[in-house]
């Protein structure tokens, strides 16, 4: 730590007893390194006193800082007492006050008078109002004017009330310190050492300069000629200003301006395709570092969300110190808590039912006992099986009342009661077997719930769920879990602000993107840029300069610098590298190596899946031969691996809840409706009134079909599902009307069977008839039209390739083509029906009735060339291929050509 070593050496020369110094730092992180340096120098005296500059100013003022939730509650109490319009409730108040409070703190820190700025904002809005005809009171301009009128009343009263309690916001503390600094500097007898500062607020600057004037302080800056001497370099903006202070003269030098940045460095810039992909490069970078203890190496994450992924790839690093906290918002329990509050808000709107998507994430992510796990699994399987999108209160209670935290899923009696329930829940689940991070997560929340409840209770006003949700979300987004590590050795993982005053030989920065470094114009504020400039408040330009300094200061002493940025554009990420990378490329003397890391879109397994027919597989195939259906053969044609998984392993896809009816279930809806209608008419020669009566009752038949699907009737009452039901009704009407027209035109139509099951229909695989399979399946409809038996299969899809052309050349493999699967299925059905004695002597037709073109009626299978015997040869060869131990199940990889 070059800079810290230099400071300590200088101080020891001045006084061998360092307890005479008060060392003031930008943050507390460097203290542990200072102690290490003192130990290495065999220092045996008392340690100096350490302060952050914020702590020093608070000591001068002697006021208690108030911020966060306690400030919001106090401020709202004051706001309510003023009876301002609009008379916002607490949840509305929280939508604007936190942003306003940050602006107010900025005003108090950087301007001479907060009242002057507030009046200016009000006058600005009044001028804008004069400039246009506003009309209605509710237009935005009127609201802004009223807002700043209210703030000119509210904020002075809030300040007065806080002072009465001896409380102060950070901005008020700065304002109070202004009047006390000169006296403090004059009367103080201690010696202060300000280390590594860059930007000061006016009060901080006044404090430092007054102490310097009274010769009770010294400053050590960490500057570099590269950005200090060049006026164009924003990184040196504040330091150049400090150099002009009259306190720095011939008798007091401005220490120190080094020339480290221009020393030889290896700088590599990595253009990476993907955000998390950046972390995958870390192991490769670690291999290039000679010191395998990784002491003097820092990984700096400019995006805290990359911490979990970074830790995953650092498992081989023996000593690891994580300075930055693990963001609470990224943990599963945090997500579940958010979902709980959202569920409560939904229950306030609708007490009749639960939306399954509001419940499932909570059940999945909250820690659970074995009994809870069993209850949840049974609940999910029943909801998925019945495709229940909106779960009634009655059913919800029936299925989940044994859940240990069932009370959290019911509408809360009040916000206070809900907080009590959450505290009790957190207390209980800490007894479960939780991993360390999850235990910390739960403990953080238990503590947060207690604090919020304790702070809200004295005020006594009603707390809406929306208000609690805002408070908890604010907590989730700002809190992190701290790690314990070994800060003095091994790899350091940190955020950019944690690097202040520290120097590393190897520096790896991730997410060096525009918008991450610097943050750019992304701050939430109600004060426009021009007004901020007018009153010397910090804008994004000053913030950019601060980030520029942190960046250049971090790499100025480093020998190996790796800068990674995400080149993919997604969401708010533009895929643009930071301007600081462009600056060092264009302006510095360093040769910079550029590396493009592509995240290949090629699948990991480029080879198709191949499953060999082992002895066990062949045994399963022998069982399969006893029950072979047309759908098995079409499944094999579509993809042999799918056939293996579903027919040999007997696996099936997990049930999923459909919010919109799937194509499969739409087909089932029509299919079941037709089955119900024609089941009643089975065995009859149809008359006009049979079909006319059925047409009138279609809605009832559809309701029965919905029951068969185990769907709720409400599922079809609105949205796209209402339309699907209407289409299903229209398709059913078209089929019935087609049959009706046949009868009207004098045809004789008899329904012989519906959903006809057949099994044990033998089909021989060799001439000796020593090897066979047995067909089984269901025929959707068998009827007799004018003496001809018709075998009808219902399909949701359109008919395709029902004209068969078989000759000697293609006979062996005619159906080895999935495009001909409809024809193959009809050929198999025709073979089955012709083998049944009850249909002997009748002419037989097979055909498909497509729901997509129901008015067209049945499209029949036709043999333009060849006959059924030829077709069965191809089916026979297909079955033999499936049974052939030499032919493995090879995945059929579909390729798509963009055209």
TrEMBL record:
Which Gene3D superfamilies does the UniProt entry name for this protein? 3.90.320.10
**What sequence ranges are listed for the domain PD-(D/E)XK endonuclease-like?**
628-884
Pfam families attached to this UniProt entry: PDDEXK_1
Which InterPro entries does the record cross-reference, listed alphabetically? P-loop_NTPase (IPR027417), PDDEXK-like_dom_sf (IPR011604), PDDEXK_AddAB-type (IPR038726), Restrct_endonuc-II-like (IPR011335)
Name used for this protein in its record: PD-(D/E)XK endonuclease-like domain-containing protein
Species of origin reads: Chryseobacterium formosense
What is this organism's lineage?
Bacteria, Pseudomonadati, Bacteroidota, Flavobacteriia, Flavobacteriales
